[in-house]
Amino acid sequence: MILVTGGAGFIGSNFVLHWLAGGRGPVVNLDKLTYAGNAENLAAAREDPRHVFVRGDIADGGTVRRLLDAHRPAAVVNFAAESHVDRSIHGPAAFVRTNIVGTYELLEAVRHYWTALPPRERESFRFLHVSSDEVYGSLETHEPAFTEARAYAPNSPYAASKAASDHLVRAYHHTWGLPTLTTNCSNNYGPRQFPEKLIPLVIVNAVHGRSLPVYGDGGNVRDWLYVADHCSALLRVLEAGRPGEVYNIGGSAERTNLQVVHALAGILDELRPDRAPHARLITHVADRPGHDRRYAMDTRKLESGTGWRPVEAFETGLRKTVAWYLDNMDWVGNVTSGEYRKWVDLNYGGR
What we know:
CATH architecture of the domain at 2-189 and 227-250 and 296-311: 3-Layer(aba) Sandwich
Mean pLDDT: 94
Helix content: 40-55%
CATH topology of the domain at 2-189 and 227-250 and 296-311: Rossmann fold
Strand order of the largest sheet: 3-2-1-4-5-6-10
CATH class of the domain at 2-189 and 227-250 and 296-311: Alpha Beta
Number of helices: 13
Radius of gyration: 20 Å
Strand content: 15-25%
Structural class: alpha/beta
Number of strands: 12
Low-confidence stretches: none
């Protein structure tokens, strides 16, 4: 039995389905079901008796404590977070509440639960905190990739809130001995990602013949990680990671944003030739404030310590992702509600 928080979001839902598909034990899934948490993401687990879904907030310590006492999980995997830089620029308060206060409340509940466990269960228990490469700040073009020893230098309200949550997790390990694990991942992509992030936004806009917005000159570089590879890495960290340690997870696939959009346009030209060329829809818009130029992840610690390697090439993962969205436009329609359209107008209008 494990407790997953934020398990109806993009990465969390993929992890829950990955866990269950591997024939593992039960999952209690706690999610607040905000705009990015979607119960439809878990449709494949709807009839699985091993999956227990609970709607709730990690900032509600009482709910968390009741779940821990009732289900007695052997591990907690924390995905619950506000996670979009653009949204944090327009409204940072939600990021402070969930990512900082919520993480604190979750850690407090888990600490008290863990302290009361019998010695053998206490020894094997793990708290896995899923974080971001953005806590490290920005790299220059020729700088080496981020290692786990890199000093934190967050540049957005989102990144600052995730950095704060990472520091809380570290403090709970060093102060009370809570057996924590922290992972910092690069940009994820794949099925079930809310269409505010670059790759699904471009796919959905292209299907509807709308512009494909690219910030600034499009030269910002990200390391892209297919979500299934991320899930397999998290499993290896749970199994073989050392308590108190931090592990970087990346896909070894650095691309500029403009390269990503052109790659998507090329795949869409093949799969939807009636609308080709999709590249004609690319529109450069005013850059967002404080846009980090480059992220890259050094994953040697994870690979040497756990034996994990990514298996999906960027090109094949991107093709799978486009195909999933084209095959699941009903899902897209359900999640891109009126509130989503208001958000798109807020963030991209006037750029």
